[in-house]
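Forwarding the complex inputs:
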Amino acid sequence: KAGVTQTPRYLIKTRGQQVTLSCSPISGHRSVSWYQQTPGQGLQFLFEYFSETQRNKGNFPGRFSGRQFSNSRSEMNVSTLELGDSALYLCASSTTTSGSTNEQFFGPGTRLTVL
Amino acid sequence: AQRVTQPEKLLSVFKGAPVELKCNYSYSGSPELFWYVQYSRQRLQLLLRHISRESIKGFTADLNKGETSFHLKKPFAQEEDSAMYYCALHLSGGSYIPTFGRGTSLIVHP
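Prediction (whole assembly, two chains):
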């Protein structure tokens, strides 16, 4: 099976702009989670989608949003970008939701730089 | 709020030496703990989870609820074990908010 794919891999934006990142899960996986990874804060959970519904959400402002399509592909949107949004954004998929014991498969990440 | 602490940012050992990567957590409920690993130029991947009580690549981890710890151990380190290791806490009971530690970089010297 093909692994989790994320596009684009690298992105440069300026403050105030908005950005959309895309994640395609492993075929058959219905849960997609998003994480932000920075040197200062480490790996932080953003949100999880399952069957097109947001099931869980981390402690991030409303500028961070996402959605999931019927084919389980997911997008994450960040509006009004700030310098502090520069990070590696990781997507992970798993077979089911409330995946406290389910293995997550991670994508390679999208490196976002905000200037 | 739940928290995961990995006190060592870097752990450097020689091949064949025992390895222990520390992980402490704070959570009042029933935790579900995991270790993830990221090898150089590879993706983050699950190494092991406490519920499985398994040994992966010679690594084991025991959940100690009294000490709120989930240390990762291997009796004899190999050079290919060099990687970044993350301890993670997933809440049980339906709320899925995974919390990761900051990670420990393990370097195994020949």
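The radius of gyration of chain A is 13 Å.
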